[in-house]
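Revision sheet: structure tokens.
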Amino acid sequence: MTQKKSNRFLSVACSAIIATSVVSYSPPSQADQLLRLAQSLCDAAKTDDRSGMRKKLKSAKIRLRNIYHDLQCGSTGSLLRVATKSDSLQAATFIATKIGKKSLAKPEPDGKNIVQWTEGLVAAGDASKQAFVDLYNSKM
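Predicted:
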């Protein structure tokens, strides 16, 4: 090939590759972003990462109060139940403070609010959950 034809072929090939990559790229949807946020909040609740929760919510510009009731962490249930089961007292304190009294008192799908559910754990013999009962009662 001559130099001109070679450069032209290279130019057309590069243009085709760029056009294909531009067309095939699609930014993550808002639903995907919210799902990732929910997953990272659940993970932070399990690991007692209070500052991680705060950073994730701040970067997403979302208030926990606005999404708390729609947020479920697998079969465990709410974010507070995950924090309670994982003995994540700092995360539970952050969540309870941010969601407000009404959300703490609102029953979850099983008909129990967070205080009743945690008291049930204590009654079943898990005395380590008493600190959570005290925390939730102090926030109500």
